[in-house]
Write a structure and sequence with these properties.
The chain has helices spanning about 1-30, 35-45, 45-55, 70-85, 90-95. By secondary structure, it is an all-alpha fold. α4 (about 70-85) packs across α5.
Length: about 100
């Protein structure tokens, strides 16, 4: 019985470490820093259009206050990426710019 608890504790600790790594990657990554042409290929909109879209949508989307919350702009970019490819798992799983696993989406 004690061995099962140890396994559960270790698994939970690994999950927390992975969450922290993803959060740090999200905080350090800036999808707006890539070239405009690559940005358009990934998201099908210009950087300025995405920024304006974020400004327009922000009042309608509830902001999370958790420390591990996905930043608002990355949520919008993940949604645009899905709409551009119609497959969130493939794009999010291989898109190094978003640093988001498929689960929270």
């Amino acid at each position: 019985m004690a061995a099962a608890w140890v396994v559960l504790i270790v698994a939970d600790e690994e999950r927390r470490k992975l969450q922290l790594i993803r959060k740090n990657l999200r905080d350090l990554s800036n999808p707006f820093s890539i070239q405009e042409s690559q940005f358009r290929l990934l998201y099908r909109l210009s950087k300025d259009a995405v920024r304006e879209l974020c400004v327009q949508l922000r009042p309608y989307i509830e902001q999370e206050v958790r420390a591990t919350a996905i930043p608002f702009e990355l949520k919008i970019l993940a949604t645009l990426s899905f709409m551009a490819s119609s497959s969130y798992q493939r794009r999010i799983g291989q898109d190094f710019l978003s640093c988001i696993c498929a689960n929270p989406l």
